[in-house]
Amino acid sequence: MVFVRSLVLLLKFLFLYSLFTFTFTTCFPQIQPKCHQYESHALLQFKEGFVINNLASDNLLGYPKTASWNSSTDCCSWDGIKCHEHTNQVIHIDLSSSQLYGKMDANSSLFRLVHLRVLDLSDNDFNYSPIPSKIGQLSQLKHLNLSLSLFSGEIPPHVSQLSKLLSLDLGYRAIVHPKGSTSNLLQLKLSSLRSIIQNSTKIEILFLSFVTISSTLPETLTNLTSLKALSLYNSELYGAFPVGVFHLPNLELLDLRYNPNLNGSLPEFQSSSLTRLGLDQTGFYGTLPVSIGKLSSLILLSISDCHFFGYIPSSLGNLTQLMDIDLSKNKFRGNPSASLANLTQLRLLDISHNEFTIETFSWVGKLSSLISLEISSVNIGSEIPLSFANLTQLVLLSAENSNIKGEIPSWIMNLTNLVVLDLPFNSLHGKLELDTFLKLKKLAVLNLSFNKLSLYSGKRSSHMTDSRIQSLELDSCNLVEIPTFIRDLGELEYLALALNNITSLPNWLWEKESLQGLVVNQNSLTGEITPLICNLKSLTYLDLAFNNLSGNVPSCLGNFSQSLQTLALKGNKLSGPIPQTYMIGNSLQRIDFSNNILQGQLPRALVNSRSLEFFDVSYNNINDSFPLWMKDLPELKVLSLSNNEFHGDIRCSDNMTCTFPKLHIIDLSHNEFSGSFPSEMIQGWKTMKTTNTSQLQYESYSTSNSAGQIRTTQSTFYTFTLSNKGFSRVYENLQNFYSLIAIDISSNKISGEIPQVIGELKGLVLLNLSNNMLIGSIPSSLGKLSKLEALDLSLNSLSGKIPKQLAEITFLEYLNVSFNNLTGPIPQNNQFSTFKDDSFEGNQGLCGDQLVKKCIDHAGPSTFDDDDDDDSESFFELYWTVVLIGYGGGLVAGVALGNTYFPQLKRVM
Ligand SMILES: *[C@@H]1O[C@H](CO)[C@@H](O)[C@H](O)[C@H]1NC(C)=O
Ligand SMILES: *[C@@H]1O[C@H](CO)[C@@H](O)[C@H](O)[C@H]1NC(C)=O
Ligand SMILES: *[C@@H]1O[C@H](CO)[C@@H](O)[C@H](O)[C@H]1NC(C)=O
Ligand SMILES: *[C@@H]1O[C@H](CO)[C@@H](O)[C@H](O)[C@H]1NC(C)=O
Ligand SMILES: *[C@@H]1O[C@H](CO)[C@@H](O)[C@H](O)[C@H]1NC(C)=O
Ligand SMILES: *[C@@H]1O[C@H](CO)[C@@H](O)[C@H](O)[C@H]1NC(C)=O
Ligand SMILES: *[C@@H]1O[C@H](CO)[C@@H](O)[C@H](O)[C@H]1NC(C)=O
Ligand SMILES: *[C@@H]1O[C@H](CO)[C@@H](O)[C@H](O)[C@H]1NC(C)=O
């Protein structure tokens, strides 16, 4: 679940954020001179250009500074304004977090204040205005801060005229965008960056986080010898990082996080003033140099999700000032305890997902300042180490899949600051009274899924409502009913109870209006789904898949919640019609009704679901024609109608284009579709023509910055089966699933020929046309589908030869052309030599090494006839002929014979 994990991330982010902030203080004399009237006018005019809106600033301490400005007072005394002590000119404007909302005028009166040295407009909402190029006129500027203020577009090159700049902050630090997306608002051309570097040579602070630069970094960056802080977080940088930057004498902060294509390794460090180093999710690689021990000012080292490996040098243990270390998701080995045990200032330690071998954890108890400890996938092999009882400051403890054994110790309740306790996928056992956790008054996230615990509700009768638990994950915890203490969790947002043996859901559950996610899949729920479920108006995620639910689907289920994104009811015994109403502007992204006994037609009101990405009604009794009306759903990516009673043509009606703009998986198999091959429609499937699957981004994953860290509680497994004979794939990771491009039209009554245009769907990975009434030849254009992994054309009436181009498809793992009317030789080169006879059987006219019937007519100077080469003796004769020709004729003969007999020749030699 995205929001659960993001809570953990947010907590972590807040710690990191506080450490990555870098404040630059300037001193100004507190004299109040008399302001120039033209400057006073300019300021008031600027003020008039905006309205005050308290949503425009994130900082809760912000207030509208301009509110008190008025023409009857000295502008030098206004809130946020400072003037020069001698000239009385306005030299300083600080309107940070002032709740300003509105567009910034390109000719704003602000740019008349040419004596400005400080301009801070951060944390306001300029409503996506471009940064005015007139900013270049403020040539005296030393400090310019436009961060967090919703400017957009290209940063004007004129910024490089500000040659006196000491600090430039155009960054956008927020990670939580309303829809979770992180598309950058601002872009900076490399040429502009070069000019800034060339001209603003005294610059000390350069913050361009979330500014798309999308290039390599210029080597001249190392000329900025005054640089103290550089942040290029998420700037789409690539190429080699100029290593000289590490040696800049004044550098204190270097933040290159989230530039996955930026490469580099750590240099031999000299003693330096570096205090914070962030390289997470970059292409940095190599080992940590021993010389890292010289970074005696380092307080933050965050290098998760890079390509580092090797041992942690013990010299790190000398850096006792370190407060935050994140080494997670690398390939570090050995035992880091010697390096870490003496770092008693540590507040945040993440060593998860490496290859560490740690024998004892007693040293962790010495790190009594820890507020966050993450040791997922670190083999503990024992109970939760007693030394952790010392970590009374701990806010977050995450140890997923860490081979923790034994019972949950009672002293865990001594860690009263815990907000997140995350212990899934371990071997914890014992009977545990859930109410115990109510003692942890700050606990918001509890995850005990996939252990061997037997959880039960206590006998607590009071209705204490002071628990802060928002997310409770108890998947696979031997529950036979929903623990009653859940009733009292007034802030519960997410409840996951998958893989238990719960038979019914209590009515009080439908009163929990705070609930956003409810997952009770793979339990033993029976009976009907009560319409009361539609009281949960905040639900975004509802998953009751794989139970024994029966009866009708409540008709309110399509439109009870404007926020519902996922509706998964697959694998039950639900009957009757699919809910027919879906309100305009709904948020539905995934609907899975598959494997039930639903009837009737598809609800046409689904056209209101403009966010719909995944729609699966396979294995039901739906009786309808092809839903051409879905062609305009802008996000639809996956459409599965298989195993129903769909019928009629799969065709665009005349004068219509069959857009399906994002569709890339379509499964129409096992229906009654008829008519000719849907060629016009195929031509409209643009997404299937892409070979770059990274373009198939899936909305919920567009938070790709942290996609690696977001563990979705995978409720439903995504399967795609091609052919009855064994090529099936299970996708546990939605993103992998979503990068698949596949068409399955098998087991229908499609007639006619397969058109050559099929070769335009360059991204196709799976293509199944089996068991139809297709005639004509196999189009040679199939050979252009270079990503194809599985191709099934079996059980049709295809004739002619197998195009030799098919043998060019490098990744083809599965091929089936059996039971057609194909003739001629089977190509023998490349992948084709790995396919067995069952790929080809049932074609009278085919010959080749896979079949009893060998080919002879194309094999060179042989007198054997196509029809009587079935005995193996003749084969051997032929075989030797070829070898001899290869020997005598040398290379030319070998080439003339094609690759067909190459394998045999090689074996002989
Ligand atoms: C560099 O700064 C000077 C002085 O401010 C300015 O005239 C010039 O245009 C700037 N150069 C660039 C490339 O911006
Ligand atoms: C900046 O660096 C380049 C090489 O990286 C060098 O050629 C140039 O002279 C430097 N400029 C200054 C002003 O130091
Ligand atoms: C730690 O620092 C001390 C004193 O500065 C030095 O002698 C020692 O070699 C350092 N240890 C490591 C492992 O670098
Ligand atoms: C930790 O510090 C103690 C005392 O200062 C010292 O004796 C020990 O060697 C240090 N351990 C490591 C691994 O540096
Ligand atoms: C617990 O922390 C204290 C410092 O707060 C430390 O002196 C003590 O050694 C720690 N105990 C263990 C078992 O690590
Ligand atoms: C937990 O707290 C109780 C009461 O404060 C205390 O007696 C006990 O020793 C603590 N347990 C551990 C393991 O620290
Ligand atoms: C679930 O509970 C029922 C009785 O309520 C029992 O018959 C069944 O075996 C249980 N299933 C599992 C997987 O424990
Ligand atoms: C197979 O193809 C031959 C011609 O190549 C044709 O005569 C025959 O009727 C076809 N058989 C079937 C079953 O389509």
Automatic annotation (TrEMBL):
* Location relative to the cell: Cell membrane
Give the matching InterPro entries: Leu-rich_rpt, Leu-rich_rpt_typical-subtyp, LRR_dom_sf, LRR_N_plant-typ, RLP23-like
Q: Which GO terms describe its molecular function?
A: kinase activity
Q: Name one Pfam family in it.
A: LRRNT_2
Q: What is this protein called?
A: Leucine-rich receptor-like kinase family protein, putative
Name the domain of life.
Eukaryota
Which lineage is the organism of this entry classified under, starting from the top rank? Eukaryota, Viridiplantae, Streptophyta, Embryophyta, Tracheophyta
Q: What is its main location?
A: membrane
| Record organism | Medicago truncatula
| TM regions (residue ranges) | 878-902
**PROSITE patterns the UniProt entry points to:** LRR
Q: Which residues form the Leucine-rich repeat-containing N-terminal plant-type domain?
A: 37-83
